[in-house]
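User: Quick sanity check before I run a bigger batch. Here is a single chain. Can you write out its predicted 3D structure?
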Amino acid sequence: MSRIAALAEKEFTQIRRDPALSRLIVGLPILMVLLFGYALNFTLSDIRLAVYDASNDRISQTLIQALQQDNRFRVTYTATRPEDVPQAINTGKARVGLVIPADVLQTVRQDKAVQLQIYVDGSDPNFAFQAQAALRKVLGDVNTRLLAGKVLAGTATTPPLTPSLNLLYNPDSKTAWFMIPGITGLIMTMFTVLLTALSIVRESESRTMESLIASPIRPYEVVLGKVLPYLGIATVVSVVVLALGYWVFGVPVRGSVFLLFGLILLFVLGSLGVGVLISTLARTQIQAVFGTFAYIFPTIFLSGFVFPVDGMPGFFQGLSYIIPARYLIDGLRSVLLKGSGLDTMWLDLLALVVFSTVVLGLASTRFRKQLAV
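Assistant: Done. Predicted structure follows.
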């Protein structure tokens, strides 16, 4: 037992003397608890709503106000034509649309049903389900109030407001259609960051990096030589994943294939830079693995891979804007399911261009300084 205790004490001492590993061991569980506690919120609020109100009377205004009570919905786009409502959802200005026909008050007084056109972004089945439930709750409350007055007046009790649902992009609510683009983004992150970081750290641990430094090869050539194979591997893996999604699960490809692979290429280049950056901060492969996990966990929770960003607190919604995978996953879903083009996806592309440029620049600078030392 004394020998075992001495060996255990030596191991604890080694861990304590490794400041990077100690910070990761303490910080990673705290990060996970905060993310699980705050980011994993499936209850949506402030759902972005596009509205076209052709009636603009007392009943239509009451309905719009009821939708915005308790922070259920938030009107982010007021349309001037009915066809602008689904277009607003397609361009990301809203996720739910409401078209109110003309003469609602007059129709209700005549004891006729008012047909409301409802448009819901169905690319995320969980979001679509919750949005429909929230809409049904509000319409039920408004109908109850309208019927109460009609019953007292002794008139008929036909439900005044009747919704006609249009589920966009994923009418059958197939989970695979939502998950495949997210899985592609997660796989790209894991493959590129982890494999690149481990590859370069392994060179340092095995002392072969010194041989590369002593050779005529330049620092940027070392970086390119290390990351290019993983660029090829990541591209092939992305093709395999998307092909399986198309052939096995029927995930549609409604947009440009060139735009699709443009998104993937920009993201992979930036992620390779993250792997190089982690390798310059890690001294051992264990540190590289923990550093990669510390990068991947926020990606899983804050990118919209599974958990809806709209359901997160404001702080975490703001934090999600610095997660590169958010732009890749959002872009992939837009191209595959919505058929979006460059005119509506320029922001995702610009964010990935900034990400890859900044990270590759930082990684090159850090790697050059490390070689100089």
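Strands lie at 47-53, 73-78, 96-100, 114-121, 161-168.

User: Great, the batch can go ahead then.
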